[in-house]
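pasting for the record
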Amino acid sequence: MRPNGGPREGVHDLVAARYSPRAFADRPIAPELLRRIFEAGRWAASAYNEQPWRWLVATRDEETGFERLLSTLIPFNQGWAKHAAALSISLARTSFERNGKPNRHAFHDVGQAASNMAIEAAANGIAIHQMAGFDPDLVRERGLVAPGFEAVAAIALGYPGDPASLPADLRERELALRERRPLRDVVFGASFGQTAGFARDR
């Protein structure tokens, strides 16, 4: 499952295995595996243990629900995400239940939950592709989200497929070398822009 150019520096194999494919196999995800993936998300850390995450989910055999979620994606993403085994939209409660004040950490916490999901999925040979390319206003207009919540991201879930099944431009992206900024460019000491000592040669 590991694509070209995976993580280095001895990180755990599950982190190395995680990636975001656009090619999905025509294979359903067993309900118990879907449950396990979202259970991993449920156990993420959150500010004051508020657990601001909620998820809309539909599998491909739930045709009406799947099409409803698929239709909120931008056309480019619809083209490949329609082959995923399941689609989800993550939601964040934007205020604290404990006192009604705005929760500026809600999106961060939903992101942590999604990261948990991605690692649990990788442990079971499943990939998830998180997307900014969807219309959160459309999600609201269609009544898919309750007041007090905002749509955060769309997520395609499935077993990785054959990149050859993709159009040429997407196939090229799928097979491209994975890259990240060097550690020295993103890990600073107590002053922004000054690389932390342990990251200087990385």
